[in-house]
Protein backbone atom coordinates (compact mmCIF):
# COMPACT_ATOMS: atom_id res chain seq x y z
CA UNK A 1 0.00 0.00 0.00
CA UNK A 2 1.43 3.35 -0.97
CA UNK A 3 0.81 6.29 1.28
CA UNK A 4 -0.59 9.41 -0.37
CA UNK A 5 1.38 11.70 -2.58
CA UNK A 6 3.89 13.81 -0.76
CA UNK A 7 4.52 17.09 -2.54
CA UNK A 8 7.64 19.05 -1.73
CA UNK A 9 9.17 21.61 -4.07
CA UNK A 10 8.90 20.27 -7.64
CA UNK A 11 8.75 16.63 -6.52
CA UNK A 12 5.70 14.48 -5.98
CA UNK A 13 6.55 11.19 -4.34
CA UNK A 14 4.92 8.12 -2.86
CA UNK A 15 6.37 5.75 -0.31
CA UNK A 16 5.43 2.26 0.77
CA UNK A 17 5.40 3.68 4.26
CA UNK A 18 8.36 1.73 5.62
CA UNK A 19 10.89 4.04 4.04
CA UNK A 20 12.17 7.11 5.84
CA UNK A 21 10.45 10.39 5.09
CA UNK A 22 10.58 13.36 7.45
CA UNK A 23 8.60 16.48 6.47
CA UNK A 24 10.51 18.53 9.08
CA UNK A 25 13.64 18.08 6.96
CA UNK A 26 12.14 20.23 4.19
CA UNK A 27 14.26 23.11 5.52
CA UNK A 28 17.39 20.95 5.24
CA UNK A 29 16.52 20.00 1.65
CA UNK A 30 15.57 23.57 0.64
CA UNK A 31 18.79 24.96 2.09
CA UNK A 32 20.83 22.28 0.32
CA UNK A 33 19.16 23.19 -2.98
CA UNK A 34 20.07 26.85 -2.53
CA UNK A 35 23.66 25.91 -1.62
CA UNK A 36 23.98 23.60 -4.63
CA UNK A 37 22.48 26.16 -7.02
CA UNK A 38 25.18 28.64 -6.04
CA UNK A 39 27.97 26.10 -5.65
CA UNK A 40 27.37 24.42 -9.02
CA UNK A 41 27.43 27.77 -10.80
CA UNK A 42 30.82 28.71 -9.35
CA UNK A 43 32.28 25.24 -9.38
CA UNK A 44 31.54 24.90 -13.07
CA UNK A 45 33.17 28.28 -13.67
CA UNK A 46 36.23 27.18 -11.69
CA UNK A 47 36.52 23.92 -13.57
CA UNK A 48 36.37 25.79 -16.85
CA UNK A 49 38.95 28.34 -15.88
CA UNK A 50 42.56 27.47 -16.57
CA UNK A 51 43.45 27.83 -12.89
CA UNK A 52 44.01 24.65 -10.98
CA UNK A 53 41.44 24.21 -8.24
CA UNK A 54 43.20 25.45 -5.13
CA UNK A 55 42.14 25.92 -1.56
CA UNK A 56 42.78 29.19 0.23
CA UNK A 57 46.38 29.75 1.29
CA UNK A 58 45.53 30.79 4.78
CA UNK A 59 42.43 30.98 6.86
CA UNK A 60 42.04 34.66 6.31
CA UNK A 61 41.33 34.10 2.62
CA UNK A 62 38.67 31.48 3.12
CA UNK A 63 36.29 34.43 2.88
CA UNK A 64 37.22 34.93 -0.74
CA UNK A 65 37.18 31.33 -1.67
CA UNK A 66 35.82 32.02 -5.11
CA UNK A 67 37.25 34.84 -7.16
CA UNK A 68 35.72 33.98 -10.45
CA UNK A 69 33.51 35.92 -12.79
CA UNK A 70 29.83 36.05 -11.91
CA UNK A 71 28.77 34.06 -14.94
CA UNK A 72 30.50 30.73 -15.38
CA UNK A 73 30.65 28.92 -18.67
CA UNK A 74 28.64 25.77 -18.33
CA UNK A 75 30.64 22.57 -18.38
CA UNK A 76 29.38 20.51 -21.26
CA UNK A 77 28.19 17.83 -18.90
CA UNK A 78 27.52 19.64 -15.62
CA UNK A 79 28.30 18.30 -12.15
CA UNK A 80 27.86 14.84 -10.68
CA UNK A 81 26.12 14.24 -7.33
CA UNK A 82 25.90 11.21 -5.08
CA UNK A 83 23.08 11.09 -2.58
CA UNK A 84 24.52 8.16 -0.66
CA UNK A 85 21.57 7.57 1.70
CA UNK A 86 18.52 8.43 -0.31
CA UNK A 87 15.45 6.69 1.29
CA UNK A 88 12.51 7.68 -0.97
CA UNK A 89 14.68 9.55 -3.49
CA UNK A 90 12.84 12.79 -2.66
CA UNK A 91 16.02 14.81 -2.17
CA UNK A 92 17.69 13.59 -5.38
CA UNK A 93 14.53 14.18 -7.39
CA UNK A 94 14.29 17.70 -6.04
CA UNK A 95 17.98 18.33 -6.80
CA UNK A 96 17.43 17.04 -10.36
CA UNK A 97 14.37 19.20 -10.96
CA UNK A 98 15.32 22.36 -9.08
CA UNK A 99 19.04 22.83 -9.77
CA UNK A 100 20.42 23.48 -13.23
CA UNK A 101 23.83 22.35 -14.49
CA UNK A 102 23.64 18.78 -13.17
CA UNK A 103 25.02 15.95 -15.25
CA UNK A 104 23.91 13.05 -13.08
CA UNK A 105 22.65 12.23 -9.60
CA UNK A 106 22.99 8.77 -8.10
CA UNK A 107 20.25 8.11 -5.54
CA UNK A 108 21.56 5.22 -3.48
CA UNK A 109 20.19 3.22 -0.56
CA UNK A 110 21.07 -0.07 1.11
CA UNK A 111 17.42 -0.98 1.64
CA UNK A 112 15.64 -2.79 -1.20
CA UNK A 113 12.31 -1.27 -0.18
CA UNK A 114 13.86 2.18 -0.39
CA UNK A 115 15.31 1.47 -3.84
CA UNK A 116 11.86 0.34 -5.05
CA UNK A 117 10.48 3.68 -3.85
CA UNK A 118 13.36 5.56 -5.49
CA UNK A 119 12.79 3.84 -8.87
CA UNK A 120 9.06 4.45 -8.86
CA UNK A 121 9.43 8.07 -7.77
CA UNK A 122 12.06 8.78 -10.43
CA UNK A 123 9.75 7.44 -13.14
CA UNK A 124 6.68 9.27 -11.86
CA UNK A 125 8.65 12.51 -11.81
CA UNK A 126 10.04 12.03 -15.33
CA UNK A 127 13.58 12.59 -14.18
CA UNK A 128 15.27 9.34 -15.23
CA UNK A 129 17.51 11.32 -17.61
CA UNK A 130 19.31 12.79 -14.56
CA UNK A 131 18.57 10.70 -11.44
CA UNK A 132 19.79 7.08 -11.41
CA UNK A 133 18.67 4.67 -8.68
CA UNK A 134 21.32 2.49 -7.06
CA UNK A 135 21.24 -0.32 -4.52
CA UNK A 136 24.46 -0.62 -2.55
CA UNK A 137 26.07 -0.09 0.80
CA UNK A 138 27.05 3.61 0.60
CA UNK A 139 30.57 2.94 1.87
CA UNK A 140 31.23 0.28 -0.79
CA UNK A 141 29.86 2.52 -3.51
CA UNK A 142 32.08 5.43 -2.45
CA UNK A 143 35.20 3.22 -2.16
CA UNK A 144 34.59 2.12 -5.76
CA UNK A 145 34.76 5.77 -6.76
CA UNK A 146 37.79 6.85 -4.78
CA UNK A 147 40.28 6.73 -7.67
CA UNK A 148 38.17 7.18 -10.76
CA UNK A 149 34.85 8.83 -11.49
CA UNK A 150 34.83 10.79 -8.28
CA UNK A 151 31.73 12.84 -7.51
CA UNK A 152 31.67 16.65 -7.51
CA UNK A 153 29.13 16.59 -4.68
CA UNK A 154 28.40 13.95 -2.04
CA UNK A 155 25.41 14.30 0.27
CA UNK A 156 25.37 12.24 3.49
CA UNK A 157 22.08 12.39 5.35
CA UNK A 158 22.06 9.37 7.68
CA UNK A 159 20.04 8.44 10.74
CA UNK A 160 22.16 9.68 13.62
CA UNK A 161 25.92 9.71 13.24
CA UNK A 162 27.59 10.08 9.81
CA UNK A 163 31.11 9.06 10.91
CA UNK A 164 31.13 5.56 9.37
CA UNK A 165 30.64 7.14 5.93
CA UNK A 166 33.34 9.78 6.17
CA UNK A 167 36.42 7.70 5.34
CA UNK A 168 35.04 6.71 1.94
CA UNK A 169 33.31 10.05 1.28
CA UNK A 170 36.44 12.19 1.65
CA UNK A 171 38.18 9.99 -0.93
CA UNK A 172 35.35 9.79 -3.45
CA UNK A 173 34.99 13.53 -3.94
CA UNK A 174 36.71 15.58 -6.66
CA UNK A 175 39.29 18.23 -5.77
CA UNK A 176 37.38 21.28 -4.55
CA UNK A 177 34.15 19.27 -4.53
CA UNK A 178 31.41 19.77 -1.95
CA UNK A 179 30.56 17.41 0.90
CA UNK A 180 27.19 17.91 2.64
CA UNK A 181 26.85 16.14 5.98
CA UNK A 182 23.95 15.90 8.45
CA UNK A 183 24.34 14.57 12.00
CA UNK A 184 21.23 13.99 14.12
CA UNK A 185 22.80 12.31 17.16
CA UNK A 186 22.65 15.54 19.13
CA UNK A 187 22.63 13.86 22.54
CA UNK A 188 26.08 12.41 21.82
CA UNK A 189 27.43 15.62 20.27
CA UNK A 190 25.94 17.87 22.95
CA UNK A 191 27.65 16.31 25.94
CA UNK A 192 25.27 13.61 27.20
CA UNK A 193 27.74 10.93 26.34
CA UNK A 194 31.28 12.31 25.95
CA UNK A 195 32.89 8.84 25.78
CA UNK A 196 30.61 7.78 22.92
CA UNK A 197 31.35 11.08 21.22
CA UNK A 198 35.05 10.26 21.40
CA UNK A 199 34.56 6.81 19.90
CA UNK A 200 32.43 8.13 17.05
CA UNK A 201 33.94 11.54 16.37
CA UNK A 202 37.39 11.44 18.00
CA UNK A 203 36.42 14.35 20.24
CA UNK A 204 35.05 14.77 23.76
CA UNK A 205 31.76 16.67 23.91
CA UNK A 206 30.85 18.89 26.86
CA UNK A 207 27.64 19.71 28.70
CA UNK A 208 28.00 23.37 27.93
CA UNK A 209 25.37 25.96 27.02
CA UNK A 210 26.94 26.52 23.62
CA UNK A 211 26.67 22.77 22.92
CA UNK A 212 25.12 23.34 19.49
CA UNK A 213 28.18 25.14 18.23
CA UNK A 214 30.40 22.55 19.95
CA UNK A 215 28.45 19.90 18.00
CA UNK A 216 29.06 21.61 14.66
CA UNK A 217 32.75 22.07 15.47
CA UNK A 218 33.17 18.44 16.59
CA UNK A 219 31.69 17.26 13.30
CA UNK A 220 33.98 19.56 11.29
CA UNK A 221 37.14 18.37 13.10
CA UNK A 222 36.02 14.79 12.47
CA UNK A 223 35.63 15.37 8.72
CA UNK A 224 38.99 17.19 8.61
CA UNK A 225 40.77 14.32 10.38
CA UNK A 226 39.37 11.81 7.88
CA UNK A 227 40.38 14.05 4.98
CA UNK A 228 43.91 14.51 6.39
CA UNK A 229 44.57 10.76 6.15
CA UNK A 230 44.48 11.16 2.37
CA UNK A 231 46.42 14.46 2.25
CA UNK A 232 43.17 16.34 1.93
CA UNK A 233 41.63 19.12 3.99
CA UNK A 234 38.32 20.96 4.24
CA UNK A 235 37.09 24.53 3.89
CA UNK A 236 33.64 25.06 5.42
CA UNK A 237 31.26 27.14 3.31
CA UNK A 238 28.31 27.01 5.71
CA UNK A 239 27.72 25.26 9.05
CA UNK A 240 24.25 25.18 10.55
CA UNK A 241 22.56 24.02 13.72
CA UNK A 242 18.79 23.71 13.30
CA UNK A 243 15.94 21.80 14.96
CA UNK A 244 17.40 18.47 16.11
CA UNK A 245 20.45 18.23 13.87
CA UNK A 246 23.58 19.89 12.50
CA UNK A 247 24.36 20.24 8.82
CA UNK A 248 27.70 21.28 7.32
CA UNK A 249 28.70 22.15 3.75
CA UNK A 250 32.45 21.81 3.21
CA UNK A 251 34.75 21.85 0.22
CA UNK A 252 37.38 19.11 0.11
CA UNK A 253 40.81 19.94 -1.34
CA UNK A 254 44.02 18.00 -1.84
CA UNK A 255 47.40 19.25 -0.56
CA UNK A 256 49.83 17.54 1.81
CA UNK A 257 51.48 20.84 2.77
CA UNK A 258 48.17 22.50 3.63
CA UNK A 259 47.34 19.56 5.89
CA UNK A 260 50.14 20.74 8.17
CA UNK A 261 47.90 23.70 9.00
CA UNK A 262 45.26 21.45 10.52
CA UNK A 263 46.56 21.61 14.10
CA UNK A 264 46.26 25.39 14.01
CA UNK A 265 42.57 25.01 13.13
CA UNK A 266 41.83 22.80 16.15
CA UNK A 267 41.56 23.54 19.87
CA UNK A 268 40.81 21.84 23.13
CA UNK A 269 38.17 23.51 25.25
CA UNK A 270 38.35 24.00 29.02
CA UNK A 271 34.89 24.43 30.43
CA UNK A 272 33.91 25.49 33.93
CA UNK A 273 31.01 23.36 35.16
CA UNK A 274 30.15 26.10 37.67
CA UNK A 275 29.73 29.26 35.60
CA UNK A 276 29.90 27.86 32.04
CA UNK A 277 32.91 30.00 31.05
CA UNK A 278 35.32 28.46 28.57
CA UNK A 279 38.94 28.78 27.43
CA UNK A 280 40.34 27.51 24.14
CA UNK A 281 43.77 25.97 23.81
CA UNK A 282 44.92 25.63 20.18
CA UNK A 283 46.60 22.38 19.17
CA UNK A 284 49.02 24.25 16.94
CA UNK A 285 50.01 27.80 16.14
CA UNK A 286 51.23 29.52 13.00
CA UNK A 287 54.71 30.97 12.64
CA UNK A 288 54.61 34.44 11.07
CA UNK A 289 51.56 35.76 9.38
CA UNK A 290 50.90 36.71 5.78
CA UNK A 291 52.74 35.24 2.78
CA UNK A 292 55.21 33.13 4.74
CA UNK A 293 52.79 31.72 7.23
CA UNK A 294 53.85 28.23 8.23
CA UNK A 295 52.74 25.77 10.84
CA UNK A 296 55.24 25.41 13.65
CA UNK A 297 57.80 22.68 12.99
CA UNK A 298 58.43 21.76 16.62
CA UNK A 299 56.02 20.72 19.37
CA UNK A 300 53.62 23.20 20.86
CA UNK A 301 55.20 26.00 22.85
CA UNK A 302 54.11 26.05 26.47
CA UNK A 303 50.56 27.35 26.64
CA UNK A 304 49.40 29.29 29.67
CA UNK A 305 48.30 26.45 31.92
CA UNK A 306 44.61 26.32 32.66
CA UNK A 307 43.99 26.10 36.41
CA UNK A 308 41.91 23.18 37.64
CA UNK A 309 39.64 25.64 39.41
CA UNK A 310 37.86 28.33 37.45
CA UNK A 311 39.23 31.83 38.09
CA UNK A 312 35.73 33.35 37.99
CA UNK A 313 33.79 31.06 40.34
CA UNK A 314 36.25 28.40 41.59
CA UNK A 315 34.15 25.74 39.85
CA UNK A 316 35.74 22.59 38.42
CA UNK A 317 37.08 22.72 34.87
CA UNK A 318 36.51 19.92 32.38
CA UNK A 319 38.43 19.48 29.15
CA UNK A 320 36.64 18.72 25.89
CA UNK A 321 37.57 18.59 22.23
CA UNK A 322 39.45 18.84 20.06
CA UNK A 323 37.04 21.02 18.13
CA UNK A 324 37.36 22.89 14.84
CA UNK A 325 38.23 26.44 15.95
CA UNK A 326 38.66 28.03 12.50
CA UNK A 327 35.75 29.84 10.77
CA UNK A 328 32.45 27.99 10.33
CA UNK A 329 31.40 29.76 7.16
CA UNK A 330 32.71 31.50 4.10
CA UNK A 331 30.99 34.87 4.47
CA UNK A 332 31.55 35.48 0.78
CA UNK A 333 29.59 32.33 0.01
CA UNK A 334 26.84 33.25 2.52
CA UNK A 335 26.49 36.58 0.73
CA UNK A 336 26.08 34.78 -2.58
CA UNK A 337 23.40 32.56 -1.04
CA UNK A 338 21.50 35.65 0.08
CA UNK A 339 21.80 37.18 -3.39
CA UNK A 340 20.44 33.98 -4.94
CA UNK A 341 17.61 33.50 -2.43
CA UNK A 342 14.46 32.44 -4.18
CA UNK A 343 10.87 32.20 -3.01
CA UNK A 344 10.27 28.94 -4.88
CA UNK A 345 11.77 27.25 -1.80
CA UNK A 346 8.98 26.51 0.70
CA UNK A 347 11.06 27.53 3.72
CA UNK A 348 12.82 30.49 2.11
CA UNK A 349 11.84 32.96 4.86
CA UNK A 350 13.44 30.79 7.52
CA UNK A 351 16.53 30.27 5.34
CA UNK A 352 16.84 33.97 4.71
CA UNK A 353 16.46 34.78 8.42
CA UNK A 354 19.16 32.31 9.42
CA UNK A 355 21.55 33.40 6.66
CA UNK A 356 21.16 37.07 7.65
CA UNK A 357 22.12 36.27 11.25
CA UNK A 358 25.04 34.15 10.00
CA UNK A 359 26.25 36.94 7.73
CA UNK A 360 26.73 39.06 10.87
CA UNK A 361 28.11 36.35 13.14
CA UNK A 362 31.67 36.81 14.44
CA UNK A 363 33.05 34.13 12.15
CA UNK A 364 36.48 34.09 13.75
CA UNK A 365 35.23 33.75 17.34
CA UNK A 366 34.39 30.19 18.42
CA UNK A 367 31.48 29.43 20.79
CA UNK A 368 29.10 31.75 22.61
CA UNK A 369 27.73 32.79 26.02
CA UNK A 370 24.11 32.06 26.95
CA UNK A 371 22.87 35.11 28.83
CA UNK A 372 20.36 33.20 30.99
CA UNK A 373 23.13 30.90 32.22
CA UNK A 374 25.36 33.87 33.12
CA UNK A 375 22.58 35.65 34.99
CA UNK A 376 21.47 32.38 36.64
CA UNK A 377 24.99 31.94 38.04
CA UNK A 378 24.94 35.46 39.45
CA UNK A 379 21.29 35.21 40.60
CA UNK A 380 20.38 38.39 38.75
CA UNK A 381 17.70 39.06 36.16
CA UNK A 382 18.81 38.56 32.57
CA UNK A 383 19.69 41.98 31.15
CA UNK A 384 18.20 42.97 27.77
CA UNK A 385 20.29 41.69 24.88
CA UNK A 386 20.76 45.19 23.47
CA UNK A 387 22.18 46.54 26.72
CA UNK A 388 24.70 43.73 26.98
CA UNK A 389 25.73 44.21 23.38
CA UNK A 390 26.36 47.92 23.86
CA UNK A 391 28.27 47.32 27.11
CA UNK A 392 30.60 44.89 25.31
CA UNK A 393 31.05 47.35 22.42
CA UNK A 394 31.77 50.18 24.87
CA UNK A 395 34.43 48.05 26.51
CA UNK A 396 36.13 47.92 23.10
CA UNK A 397 35.26 44.39 21.96
CA UNK A 398 33.24 42.90 19.14
CA UNK A 399 29.91 41.19 19.71
CA UNK A 400 27.27 39.44 17.58
CA UNK A 401 24.25 37.17 17.76
CA UNK A 402 24.48 33.52 16.77
CA UNK A 403 21.93 31.66 14.64
CA UNK A 404 22.31 28.71 17.02
CA UNK A 405 20.69 30.32 20.06
CA UNK A 406 18.50 33.41 20.24
CA UNK A 407 19.54 34.50 23.73
CA UNK A 408 23.28 34.13 23.31
CA UNK A 409 26.15 36.35 22.27
CA UNK A 410 29.44 35.71 20.54
CA UNK A 411 32.21 38.05 21.59
CA UNK A 412 35.97 38.35 21.49
CA UNK A 413 35.90 39.92 24.95
CA UNK A 414 37.72 37.75 27.52
CA UNK A 415 35.44 35.91 29.95
CA UNK A 416 36.59 38.27 32.72
CA UNK A 417 35.17 41.28 30.85
CA UNK A 418 31.87 39.49 30.22
CA UNK A 419 31.65 38.65 33.92
CA UNK A 420 32.50 42.22 34.94
CA UNK A 421 29.73 43.52 32.70
CA UNK A 422 27.24 41.04 34.12
CA UNK A 423 28.22 41.82 37.72
CA UNK A 424 27.96 45.55 37.26
CA UNK A 425 24.48 45.19 35.82
N1 LIG B 1 18.20 11.77 2.56
C1 LIG B 1 16.84 11.30 2.81
C2 LIG B 1 15.85 12.45 2.71
O1 LIG B 1 16.25 13.64 2.60
O2 LIG B 1 14.64 12.18 2.71
C3 LIG B 1 16.72 10.60 4.12
C4 LIG B 1 17.73 9.51 4.39
S1 LIG B 1 17.35 8.50 5.78
C5 LIG B 1 17.63 9.55 7.15
C6 LIG B 1 18.69 7.39 5.88
C7 LIG B 1 18.68 6.28 4.84
O3 LIG B 1 19.98 5.67 4.85
C8 LIG B 1 17.68 5.14 5.07
O4 LIG B 1 16.82 5.03 3.97
C9 LIG B 1 18.57 3.87 5.20
O5 LIG B 1 18.01 2.74 4.55
C10 LIG B 1 19.83 4.31 4.48
N2 LIG B 1 21.07 3.61 4.89
C11 LIG B 1 21.49 3.27 6.14
N3 LIG B 1 22.71 2.69 6.08
C12 LIG B 1 23.10 2.68 4.78
C13 LIG B 1 24.25 2.25 4.08
N4 LIG B 1 25.29 1.67 4.72
N5 LIG B 1 24.31 2.41 2.74
C14 LIG B 1 23.28 2.99 2.08
N6 LIG B 1 22.14 3.41 2.68
C15 LIG B 1 22.05 3.26 4.02
UniProtKB/TrEMBL annotation:
<dbReference type="GO" id="GO:0008033">
    <property type="term" value="P:tRNA processing"/>
</dbReference>
<keyword id="KW-0489">Methyltransferase</keyword>
<protein>
    <recommendedName>
        <fullName>tRNA (guanine(26)-N(2))-dimethyltransferase</fullName>
        <ecNumber>2.1.1.216</ecNumber>
    </recommendedName>
</protein>
<dbReference type="GO" id="GO:0032259">
    <property type="term" value="P:methylation"/>
</dbReference>
<dbReference type="GO" id="GO:0160104">
    <property type="term" value="F:tRNA (guanine(26)-N2)-dimethyltransferase activity"/>
</dbReference>
<keyword id="KW-0949">S-adenosyl-L-methionine</keyword>
<comment type="similarity">
    <text>Belongs to the class I-like SAM-binding methyltransferase superfamily. Trm1 family.</text>
</comment>
<keyword id="KW-0820">tRNA-binding</keyword>
<dbReference type="GO" id="GO:0000049">
    <property type="term" value="F:tRNA binding"/>
</dbReference>
<keyword id="KW-0694">RNA-binding</keyword>
<keyword id="KW-0819">tRNA processing</keyword>
<keyword id="KW-0808">Transferase</keyword>
Amino acid sequence: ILIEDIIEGCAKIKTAGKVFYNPVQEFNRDLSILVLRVFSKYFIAEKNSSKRVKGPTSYSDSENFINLPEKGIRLENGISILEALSATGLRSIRYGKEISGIKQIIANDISLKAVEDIKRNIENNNISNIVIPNHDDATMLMYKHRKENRFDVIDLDPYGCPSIFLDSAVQAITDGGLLLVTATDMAVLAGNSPETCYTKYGSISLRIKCCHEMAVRILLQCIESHANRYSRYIVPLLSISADFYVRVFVRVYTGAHKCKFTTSKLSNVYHCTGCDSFTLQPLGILKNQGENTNPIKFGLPAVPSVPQKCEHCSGTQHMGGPIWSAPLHSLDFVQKLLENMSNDLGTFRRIEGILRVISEELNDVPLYYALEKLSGTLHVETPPMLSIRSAVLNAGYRVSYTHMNKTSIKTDAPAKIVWDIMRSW
